[in-house]
Specification:
Elements lengths: L9 E9 L1 H18 L10 E4 L9 E9 L1
Antiparallel strand pairs: 1-3, 2-3
Length: 70
Amino acid sequence: FKVKTLPKGRYAVLSHNGSQDDLNGKIKYLYGTWLTKMNYQLREQPLTFERFDMGNDDENVNLKIYLAIT
């Protein structure tokens, strides 16, 4: 496994437990709707995933997504 410390700052955190297809829809919503609706701006940092399941099952993905915002 890999240990990573996120830089200080504000993050939108999205939890997901479901299919890979549903995850793609949630990410599109996060960028396309939520970000502008909530009036946040992106920081210069990549989207970060924290995955909790260790399998290769695309129908049962369990993770958190961290989006750096200002």
